[in-house]
Design goal:
The complex is a heterodimer of chains A (1018) and B (358).
Chain A lengths: L1 H20 L9 H14 L9 H13 L1 H22 L1 H17 L5 H8 L2 H10 L5 H18 L5 H9 L1 H24 L41 E4 L8 H10 L3 E3 L8 E3 L7 H9 L2 E3 L1 H13 L4 H10 L9 H10 L14 H11 L5 E2 L19 H4 L12 H24 L2 H5 L6 E5 L6 H11 L3 E5 L8 H5 L7 H10 L3 H4 L8 E5 L12 H11 L4 E5 L8 H4 L2 E5 L5 H15 L2 E2 L1 H10 L4 H14 L2 E2 L1 H8 L10 H10 L5 H9 L4 H9 L3 E3 L12 H35 L5 H15 L2 E3 L14 H25 L7 H22 L2 H14 L4 H10 L14 H13 L26 H7 L6 E2 L2 E2 L19 H12 L8 E3 L3 H6 L1 H15 L8 E3 L2
Parallel strand pairs in A: 1-2, 1-3, 3-4, 6-9, 6-10, 7-8, 8-9, 11-12, 17-18
Antiparallel strand pairs in A: 5-7, 13-14, 15-16
Chain B lengths: L2 H4 L12 H13 L6 E4 L6 H13 L7 E11 L2 E11 L3 E4 L8 H14 L12 E5 L7 H13 L4 E7 L7 H5 L2 E4 L5 H15 L7 H8 L4 H14 L13 H15 L3 H16 L4 H15 L2 H20 L3 H27 L1
Parallel strand pairs in B: 1-6, 1-7, 4-5, 5-6
Antiparallel strand pairs in B: 2-3, 3-4
Classes of the chains: A mainly alpha (1018), B alpha/beta (358).
GO biological process, one term (chain A): DNA repair
Keywords (chain A): ATP-binding, DNA replication, Nucleotide-binding, Nucleus
Subunit structure (chain A): Heterotetramer of subunits RFC2, RFC3, RFC4 and RFC5 that can form a complex with RFC1.
């Protein structure tokens, strides 16, 4: 098993080097032609809709006919872009690319074949070669095509000829193909995962089987063109149906990369509807209605290519190089530009020199100084600051100054504004007139609570609005609560913040004591109220009290409105929930900032950034600033790369982690460990609970109906094998866990995580299925916890029963023997008579039986509970309710013969309920047993340990008791056997009176040593 | 009162089965006036406990019967922290009985403390009676290795004031060291004939009409456990009297449930079924059936219906998973792993059979 696992991981890691190193003897020389014809084939499909622009179609065909060489050339170029897409998708490979690229460039002069092969997997490397090589390299370049073709084949379906060829090559090749096919799927799955959503990897059906979209028919067969960067700028696309060769996400990427915009539904603004077949859906109807131009995939490619052609890209000339002459455009500025965009990180040419980060941090600190009192002059400074001011953090520098600057939530800001505006009228004036009016207007709240995720401008809005209305904002945030800074500002109001707040809210002239005598209006901004914890005990309650007496408006700000801590506060506040701004809104603002900073960036890229940061404006700005340090020009790809891993820093819920482990493709080992370790207790349990539900993708054959019987059952066996191995591994994890917990061998925690999470999830890596009808296709919560606590409870019940049975002195059974052997009969003895005999007779019989074994009413219930099996009839089925009540009554009444010998059936003085733990330890400190009680008269008596005498002034049972007690007390063993000849119920009824009596008894006896025996009867 | 308890022999003389052992024990304690540490082992329902109680009665007389149940707490100072260990004990003036295995991995403290405590409270021998107390430890096989190690030292050190009677199902789980310090007494499961004899004795006492062949059937069904036989006997009595020769003997509730699981496994092998079986296993576990028992029972049910070729392999895996279950903590994981393994084996076996014939 071990070696298998290693293979799994080896494959993952070897993948990228494997691409380059694997020898590729077969040269598909005809490759370009083939793909060219494929393109033609596809172009035939264009006729499917008459709505397609005819001129474009003609053009496309013309191109293919007239310029076969050119087409080939562009194909080659496109292959690079395929490779590039691939590259972007796995950023771990990316590094290799860049490293590899450099040496190839330098050694190209020698141009050994090997080198070429090695490099040809890499788009960039080959490019340098292309531009530098002359026609003598014809052969070599052809060779170089081959692995590219392979790479493509990997992405394509198994029907591709290239793929078949490479299959012939050797096994490794085959495996890699599988791998890379997976990676093709990842373009979709990966994104879903990074969005933190349970998007099914590999995308088949996607999240919740949405849409049942088919795979593109010619998936991966066409080269994706590489065009000028902004060739699609200003155009809006809507994608509909299945495209010819691109997955939908790939198409989106392609469009976005070239500056186009992709929207979900057709509107007037839509420039093109991208679809290859007219599926008569809503989108196409709407598009026809609006007269939107239809566009096929090929046409899109052509559009992109066209843009490039006009630039006389060196790639296109490559073919020409071979046949005609060295290109004059070699080393042209355009080329260098394209290279630079491709190797985003290599390109370092920031136009503006920026001061070191340190000073920035300092200023930020100064700027954020706690509880600052911002002056209230609203001013509209346009954010076109000069570039020399760039030492400010952008989040501070471009903090909105007027409400219209705020991104999104305008209506909420308006609401806040109105509330604040009317505050004085509503509260101060009414209080002066009398309180009656205030109560009438119950809708008005004296405070407001802004809630929303971080970075969406809550604090900013609060400040801006108060500034606008001429309020002086006093901000108290979580950092102040224990800090001295705030107290100092409040001049002499020492002590806790609570004091200063109180002072502030109760004294509306406090503003006068500050430096600005003219601003009498103050607003208190309580930031981060959900952070009130720990040291701020009672903080929320105090805040509420403050709100009640406040003479100034209070604005509270929190992240999680539903936090438990704020439950009470919510009632006193006007609730305003800030929503995340849309990505368009954010992009607009970001654009504004970028312009002001002189950073070149297109809107699409910014939208991408906006959607990646999950609505957090602050984070978006920070990211943008960071990226601007290295690049003056930020493209879509930069943002994708930069933010690819940023989602990792989020708090991952165990459910997300489990989902990712099972479905996400191409996770690195450390990522897997991180996921599993996100909650090392819960994740294994979730895995264990859900692993059965996953159908491993390694089984293939998704479509079961196609398979014949034998193959299907073979698959099933393989599935069961995998399940069994996964179960083994989970069990391994359990064993390792014991070692960790029992012997504190925490160094094994990675092993445990590996065994209990990673291996099972790798074995059953695939799509989740439901096993039962009506089950939701989400990961269940681990059942073990619940079951284990039930188990614990039942064991306790069983132990109670066991003790009672033992105490009856009739039996010496062990606990397990009790469960395994006796319980069936006990159950029968206790229930059968109730079913079969007449009521009174039955009840009498059962009660007698219970008494003989000291089975209490509770024990009765536990016997029923423990011997109940799901799917089997309840043991008490068929017993009339009247009989049950009669039984309870009869038992409570008690009988003369009942002798209860265990301590827990006695209620102790001062303790209302019989303690769950059985008694011995408790009797010791009490120092006094329980008195006897005979119909209200106290007959309690104690036997002292030292003296062997005991006076049992008792009526019946006395002899028996006496002998018992004598034997027990003699040896100084602590005696706590309690005899009770009274029903539990009666004891329950009179706890207070009994308590008193016991106290009396205690007085009488006094000076008891530790052990004491007691009995009570009635 | 249940027949098991009603007809439990109170003295060594009254035993019907294991009469020879009883006589030896009697000689041991009467003639030598002292007895060594004893280790009783044998399958459940063989009569170990009955023998022990009868033996105690033989040594101490009737006062050994006067027992009380208490829940003792030991405060143990384990270096850095204090541990409270709570255990139910059954004690008379002469002996203390407990199952230290219940304390889980803290059993070692219990074992150390209880013996020392007993040594401290050494009985003052007034009437020339025994100068020692007896500690009866049940389920010694459940004791952790550490506990058994701590036991062996104290066993010798305090042997003057304390005798141990250990009781377990399998001596193989008791360490060599402990075993060598004890007189090992194996209590065999009573033969079916002996069981029949006992049942007939009870039947006579109860005045029951026993149809011919009825008691042997019970004996057969009882798996050579006398306790179970008597319980089954009484269950039948509750169910239906007078007896008929072909009367159905109701199985134990949990055994029935395990049998259902086994047939579930055999009828279908699929992830879905595995999932359902997990639910059922949980059900058994929460009903306090020990996982080892479940596994054992499940194995025997599965073996009943699987082909001879499979038997060896399946048994091997059952043993494998039982071992791992003891190493681990969450029994359900291991039970499930066994079921998954069996399904996988069985399915491929079926397929190969199918291929061979079809």
């Amino acid at each position: 098993m071990q070696s298998d696992i290693r293979k799994w991981f080896m494959k993952q890691h070897d993948k990228s080097p494997g691409d380059a190193k694997a020898p590729k003897p077969v040269v598909p020389a005809s490759q370009p032609n083939k793909s060219g014809s494929a393109g033609q084939e596809a172009s035939g499909r264009r006729k499917t809709s008459k709505y397609f622009a005819s001129d474009e179609k003609e053009k496309g065909e013309k191109e293919t006919k007239e310029l076969p060489t050119k087409r080939k050339a562009s194909n080659v170029g496109n292959e690079q872009s395929v490779k590039k897409v691939h590259k972007i998708e796995d950023d771990d490979e990316d590094d290799d690319d860049l490293v590899l690229a450099a040496p190839t460039k330098t050694s190209i002069g020698a141009s050994p074949n090997k080198k070429l092969k090695g490099a040809s997997g890499r788009g960039i490397a080959r490019k340098s070669e292309e531009s530098d090589e002359s026609d003598e390299d014809d052969d070599k370049t052809r060779k170089s095509l081959k692995p590219v073709g392979r790479g493509r084949g990997g992405r394509s379906g198994p029907k591709t000829p290239v793929h078949e060829k490479s299959k012939d090559v050797d096994e490794i090749d085959d495996e890699e193909d599988d791998k890379s096919r997976k990676s093709a799927g990842r373009g979709r799955g990966g994104r879903g995962a990074s969005a933190g959503r349970g998007r099914g990897g590999g995308g088949r059906g996607g999240f919740m089987n949405f849409g049942e979209r088919k795979d593109p028919p010619h998936k991966g067969e066409k080269e994706i063109p590489e065009g000028k960067r902004d060739c699609l700028a200003g155009l809006t696309f809507v994608i509909s149906g299945t495209l010819d060769s691109l997955e939908r996400e790939e198409a989106e990427d392609l469009i976005k990369r070239h500056g186009g915009r992709v929207t979900g539904s057709v509107s007037k603004k839509t420039s093109y509807l991208l679809c290859d077949e007219d599926i008569e859906g809503k989108k196409s109807e709407k598009a026809k209605e609006l007269g939107t131009t239809f566009l096929t995939e090929d046409a899109l490619f052509d559009m992109i290519r066209k843009s490039n052609k006009s630039l006389t890209s060196p790639k296109e000339e490559k073919k020409a190089l071979n046949k005609v002459a060295p290109s004059p455009a070699k080393g042209s500025p355009i080329k260098s530009e394209t290279t630079s965009t491709e190797k985003g990180s290599e390109n370092v040419a920031p136009p503006v020199k920026r001061s070191p980060l340190k000073s920035e941090a300092k200023t930020v600190q100064a700027g954020n100084f706690a509880a600052k009192v911002t002056s209230g002059t609203p001013f509209c400074k346009k954010s076109k600051q000069p570039a020399d001011k760039s030492w400010l953090q952008w989040t501070e520098k471009y903090r909105p100054k007027v409400p219209t600057d705020l991104v999104g939530n305008q209506s909420l800001v308006k609401q806040l504004h109105d509330w604040l505006k009317q505050w004085d009228d509503q509260f101060l004036n009414t209080t002066s007139k009398g309180k009656g009016k205030k109560q009438n207007d119950s809708g008005a709240k004296k405070a407001v609570l802004l809630s929303g995720t971080p970075g969406i401008g809550k604090t900013t809005s609060a400040k801006i609005v108060s500034q606008m209305l001429g309020f002086q904002a006093v901000e108290v945030n979580a950092s102040d609560s224990r800090g001295k800074a705030d107290a100092k500002i409040q001049k002499g109001i020492g002590g806790s913040t609570a004091n200063s707040i109180k002072e502030l809210v109760s004294n509306n002239s406090l503003g006068l004591t500050l430096d600005r005598p003219h601003q009498t209006k103050t607003v208190l901004i309580m930031d981060e109220v959900d952070g009130m914890s720990g040291g701020d005990r009672g903080g929320v309650a105090d805040l509420i009290a403050s709100i009640k007496i406040s003479k100034i408006p209070i604005v509270c700000i929190c992240n999680d409105r539903y936090s438990q801590k704020l439950k009470s506060l919510v009632n006193y506040c006007l609730l305003l929930s800030f929503r995340k701004p849309t990505k368009q809104q954010m992009a607009k603002r970001l654009m504004h900032v970028a312009k002001a900073e002189g950073v070149k960036v297109n809107e699409i890229a910014l939208e991408e950034l906006a959607s990646r940061v999950n609505g957090d404006m602050r984070m978006a700005l920070n990211q943008l600033q960071y990226m601007s340090l290295s690049n003056s020009e930020i493209g879509y790809d930069n943002i994708r790369q930069r933010l690819q891993n940023s989602s990792k820093d989020e708090d991952i819920s165990p459910f997300t982690a489990v989902d990712k482990l099972f479905t996400a493709d191409k996770l690195r080992m450390d990522e897997r460990i991180d996921l599993s370790m996100s909650d090392p207790d819960l994740v294994p349990l979730l895995i264990q609970e859900n692993y059965i539900n996953f159908r491993p993708r390694s089984l293939g054959g998704y479509n079961r109906s196609k398979m014949d019987n034998a193959k299907q059952s073979e698959e099933e066996i393989r599935h069961l094998n995998l399940l069994s191995r996964a179960a083994d591994s989970i069990a391994d994890g359990d064993i390792v866990n014991v070692q960790i917990r029992r012997y504190q061998r925490w160094q094994l925690s990675q092993t445990s995580v590996l065994a209990s999470c990673i291996i099972p999830s790798m074995l059953l890596h695939g799509q989740r299925q439901t096993l039962e009808q009506g089950e939701r296709n989400f990961n269940r919560f681990g059942g073990w916890l619940g079951k284990n606590s039930t188990l614990g409870k039942n064991y306790r019940l069983l132990e109670d029963l066991h003790v009672h049975l033992l105490a009856s002195c009739e039996s010496y059974m062990g606990r397990m023997a009790l469960r395994l052997d006796h319980l069936t009969l006990l159950k029968k003895q206790l229930t059968d008579p109730l079913r079969q005999l007449a009521k009174d007779e039955a009840v009498e019989k059962v009660v007698e039986f219970m008494d003989s074994y000291s089975i209490s009413q509770d024990d009765y219930d536990s016997i029923m509970e423990i011997s109940k099996f799901q799917g089997h009839p309840n043991p008490l089925e068929g017993v009339q309710p009247t009989v049950k009540t009669a039984l309870t009554k009869a038992y409570n009444k008690g009988s003369k013969s009942r002798v209860i010998r265990t301590a827990d059936l006695i209620t102790l003085p001062g303790i209302k309920k019989a303690p769950k733990k059985r008694i011995a330890a408790m009797l010791e400190p009490v120092d006094e047993g329980i008195a006897e009680e005979t119909d209200g008269t106290l007959l309690g008596n104690e036997d002292e340990n030292s003296s062997e005498t005991e006076d049992l002034e008792d009526s019946n049972d006395a002899e028996k008791l006496q002998s018992d007690l004598q034997s027990l007390n003699r040896k100084g063993i602590q005696v706590d056997m309690d005899l009770k000849v009274s029903g539990k119920a009666s004891a329950k009824k009179t706890p207070a009176s009994r308590g008193k009596k016991n106290a009396e008894a205690a007085d009488k006896k006094g000076g008891q040593s530790s052990g004491s025996s007691s009995k009570r009867k009635r | 009162m249940l027949w098991v308890d009603k007809y439990r022999p109170k003295t060594l003389d009254k035993l019907i089965v294991h009469q020879d052992i009883a006589q030896n024990l009697k000689k041991l304690v009467t003639e030598q006036q002292d007895c060594p540490h004893l280790l009783f082992y044998g399958p459940s329902g063989a009569g170990k406990k009955t023998l022990i109680m009868a033996l105690l009665r033989q040594i101490f007389g009737a006062s050994a019967d006067k027992v009380k149940v208490e829940n003792k707490t030991w405060k143990v100072d384990a270096g850095t922290r204090n541990i409270d260990v709570e255990l139910t004990t059954l004690s008379s003036t002469h002996h203390v009985e407990m199952s230290p295995g219940d304390a889980g991995f803290q059993d070692r403290y219990v074992v150390q403390e209880i013996i020392k405590e007993m040594a401290k409270n050494r009985p003052i021998d007034t009437k020339g009676k025994r100068g020692f107390k007896v500690l009866v430890l049940n389920e010694v096989d459940r004791l952790s290795r550490e506990a058994q190690h701590s036991l062996r030292r104290t066993m010798e050190k305090y042997s003057a004031s304390c005798r141990l009677i250990l009781c377990c199902n399998s001596s193989s789980k008791v360490t060599e060291a402990v075993r060598s310090r004890c007189l090992n007494i194996r209590i065999n499961a009573p033969s079916e004939d002996e069981i029949v004899k006992v049942l007939e004795f009870i039947g006579k006492k109860e005045g029951l009409q026993l149809p011919a062949g009825f008691t042997p059937r019970i004996a057969q069904k009882s798996n050579r456990s006398l306790r179970r036989a008597i319980l089954l006997f009484e269950t039948c009595r509750v169910q239906q009297y007078p007896f008929t020769p072909n009367q159905a003997i109701p199985p134990m509730d949990w055994e029935q449930y395990v049998a259902e699981i086994a047939s579930d496994i055999l009828t279908e092998q699929s992830p879905k079924r595995l999932f359902q079986i997990r639910g059922k296993l949980y059900e058994l576990l929460t009903n306090c059936i020990p996982p080892e028992v479940i596994l054992k029972r499940l194995l025997s049910e599965l073996l009943k219906k699987s082909d001879a070729e499979l038997k060896l392999e399946v048994s091997h895996w059952a043993a494998y998973y039982e071992h791992r279950m003891r190493l681990g903590q969450k029994a359900i994981f291991h039970l499930e792993a066994f079921v998954a393994k069996f399904m996988s084996i069985y399915k491929s076996f079926l397929l190969s059979q199918f291929a061979a014939f079809g």
